[in-house]
Each structure stands twice: as C-alpha cells, then as structure tokens.
Amino acid sequence: MTTGLNTIHDAGQVCQGCGLCCSGLLFAKVNVYESDAAARRRVKLSADGPDTYAMPQPCQFLDGASCSIYADRPRNCRSYSCRTRDSIVEGTLGMDQARQNIQAAKDLLQQMEVPVQKYWDISIAKTGFRPFCDDFLHLIRFKLDQGETPTKEEHAILRRVSDVIKIVDPHFRKTGRRAMIDRAIAAIEVANNSID
Ligand code: SF4
Ligand code: SF4
Predict the structure, then answer these.
(1) Which of 9, 77, 122, 123 is deepest in the core (most CB within 10 A)?
(2) Above 80 in pLDDT, residue 17?
(3) Is the peptide bond before 58 cis (omega within 30 degrees of 0)?
(4) Is the pLDDT of residue 15 over 80?
(5) Is any atom of ligand 2 closer than 6 Å to the C-beta of 95?
(6) Radius of gyration over alpha carbons of the chain, in Å?
(7) 85, 14 contact by CB (below 8 A)
(8) Domain assignments of the chain as residue spans, ordered by start
(9) What CA–CA distances, in Å, run from 26 to 30, 94, 181?
(10) Burial grade of 20 (CB within 10 A; 0-12, 13-18, 19 or more)
(11) What is the pLDDT of residues 23-46, one digit of tens each?
(12) CB neighbour burial string for 65-76, b if at least 16 within 10 angstroms, e if fewer
C-alpha cells in the first residue's frame, strides 16, 4: 500500500539522484530574498533588485546531483517541485520510471555537448540549457527575421533542442510555465520550414 509519507520519501530519494532543476535546465537564475539569511551568508550574490539577489544557474552549490547547502537553501529552492516529483508524491509515477525519465533528459543534454562545443566553443553543462536555449533561439529568430536561413549545424542543434524540450515539458516543468516552450517550438517550426 502506498502512503503519503512513503511517496514523499520516494520523491526525496529520486531528487537526490537528479538535480536537474539546479542545473540550468529549467531556470537561468534563482531569486534569493532578504529572508533567506542563511543562504545569503554562504555567498556573495549579484544584486537583482532592492530586496532580491539572483543566484545564477547552474547553481554554484550543486555538487553532482545534490545541493551542498541543503539545510540553508533559499525558500525558492525549498518550494520548487517539478511534475516528476509531484507525480511521485501523488503516487501516480513509480521511482523506476522517474529515474528513467531523468536519465533520458541527462543523456539528451550530454548528446548536445559535442555539437554545441564544436560550433560555439561553449559547454551546456557550464552555461546551463536554459540560458543557452534562450540565446540560441534569439539568434535563430533574428536570422529568420533578417531573411537568413539557419545553417545545417544550427538546424541540427535545433532538432536536439527540440528533443530536450519534448522531455522537459511533460516531466520537469511546472504546469503553466509554457512561455519558453512555445517560443522554442515556434522558432523550431519556422526554421525547419526554411530548410526542409
Ligand atoms: S527536477 Fe524534479 S525530480 Fe529532479 S531534483 Fe528537481 S524537483 Fe527533484
Ligand atoms: S541552493 Fe541548492 S537547491 Fe537551490 S538551486 Fe542551488 S543546488 Fe539547487
């Protein structure tokens, strides 16, 4: 029999082997507030507003797949729960399937490294998928607006971006956070039409 406590424990176990929400896959930054005193003592953060500091992602505190300041992590980190975690807690997703989805996302991100490093000399693991994706799609949209056709290399990377988004959207994003996805899919469809 599944109990709420069991599933919360299971979700915690899965998160400990994941860390995708701290890797720059979903967010370019995490806001840290005045009330996050313990977290703010741990590092000098860049000011992002009068009462807010921003912690760029991938997070400097991500150690492998775990948070190295877990007890002191900011409230935004404490409150975040992706669809995978929510589904485990609800008892509608098993740990094995969750781990398979996490590994599939990590594999797709890893597969982007070589083409992206070759073309731009940057690492997705270091810059984070989300910041990379925002810049890349901005570039593609700019080219399309100028009447330019994306190169074959850009087109190949667009397909990989699309593959990552297809797994991120249903499994790791929160409901209602579709803006980046919609922009990405629109840019990918336009670029595909310009090449195919
Ligand atoms: S992405 Fe989801 S499953 Fe992975 S660590 Fe974050 S909340 Fe947990
Ligand atoms: S402080 Fe910890 S939980 Fe928050 S983003 Fe960084 S690694 Fe993740």
Answers:
(1) 77
(2) yes
(3) yes
(4) yes
(5) no
(6) 18
(7) yes
(8) 4-84, 94-195
(9) 10, 22, 11
(10) buried
(11) 999 998 899 988 888 888 887 667
(12) eebebeebbbeb
Ligand 1 atom with the shortest distance to the CA of 25: 1
Selection from 116, 137, 115 nearest residue 127 by Cα: 116
Residues in a beta bridge with 56: 29
Ligand 1 centroid distance, CA of 40 (Å): 23
Maximum Cα–Cα distance for the chain, whole Å? 59
Q: How far is CA 59 from the centre of its chain?
A: 11
Given a contact cutoff of 8 angstroms between Cβ atoms, the answer to whether 40 and 73 are in contact is no
Pocket test for ligand 1, best of 10, 16, 20, 95 (most atoms within 8 A of CB): 20
| Atom 2 of ligand 2, nearest CA residue | 67
18 lines ligand 1 (CB under 6 A): yes
Is 26:172 a contact under the CB 8 Å cutoff? yes
Q: Structure tokens of 139?
A: 């570039």
CB 137 within 8 A of CB 187: yes
Cα–Cα distances in Å, from 133 out to 25, 54, 106? Answer: 9, 19, 16
| Length of the chain (residues) | 196
How far does residue 39's CA lie from ligand 1's centre (Å)? 20
